[in-house]
């Protein structure tokens, strides 16, 4: 629905995150809440990180510039995320995976959500 619409023409919406396990939405690229609970019996660790700090440590293939928003990744996933937030939906934050060396962060899911949030500002 919102595919290829320039960012400055998007309707107004807020990027709303929900960190609760009972409302998992596309966590880790689509695992169900039951699967998440099984895989993480001690719960999830929530990181509150500023976007610029995340970008400084994010593995280069996950960094997406705003000016290449519609050219990288799946347009349909980005469009669905925009539509979800436009309709006042909430989504689970991206899954961040820290390498053993603690020098780089990868995304285990949520690259399209992050791209929409970054483009939205």
Task: Please explain how this structure is put together.
A hairpin with a 6-residue loop joins strand 1 and strand 2. The model has no long low-confidence stretch (mean pLDDT 84). Strands 1-2 form a two-stranded antiparallel sheet. It is globular and about 40 Å long. It contains 4 helices and 2 strands, in the order αααββα. It is α+β, with helices and mostly antiparallel strands.
Offer a few descriptive terms.
121 residues, alpha+beta
List the helices and strands and how they pair.
Blueprint (H helix, E strand, L loop, with lengths): L32 H7 L11 H7 L17 H12 L8 E4 L6 E5 L1 H10 L1
Helix pairs in contact: 3-4
Instruction: Report how far the terminal alpha carbons are from each other.
Output: 21 Å
Which term fits the overall shape?
A: globular
Q: Could you estimate the helical fraction of the residues in percent?
A: 25-40%
What structural class do helix, strand and pairing data support?
alpha+beta
Using only CA atoms, what is the Rg? 14 Å
Tally of distinct domains: 1
What order do the helices and strands follow? Answer: HHHEEH
Relative strand content = 5-15%
Can you tell me the residue ranges where pLDDT is under 50 for at least 5 consecutive residues?
A: none
Mean pLDDT: 84
How many individual helices? 4
Q: How many E-type strands?
A: 2
Tell me the strand order in the biggest sheet. 1-2
């Amino acid at each position: 629905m919102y595919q290829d619409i320039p960012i400055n023409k998007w309707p107004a919406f807020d990027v709303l995150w929900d960190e609760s396990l009972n409302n998992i939405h596309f966590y880790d690229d689509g695992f169900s809440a039951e699967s998440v609970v099984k895989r993480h019996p001690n719960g999830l660790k929530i990181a509150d990180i500023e976007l610029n700090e995340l970008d400084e440590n994010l593995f280069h293939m996950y960094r997406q510039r705003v000016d290449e928003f519609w050219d990288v990744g799946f347009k349909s996933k980005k469009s669905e995320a925009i539509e979800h937030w436009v309709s006042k939906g909430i989504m689970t934050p991206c899954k961040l995976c820290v390498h053993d060396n603690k020098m780089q962060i990868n995304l285990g899911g949520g690259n399209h959500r992050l791209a929409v949030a970054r483009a939205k500002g």
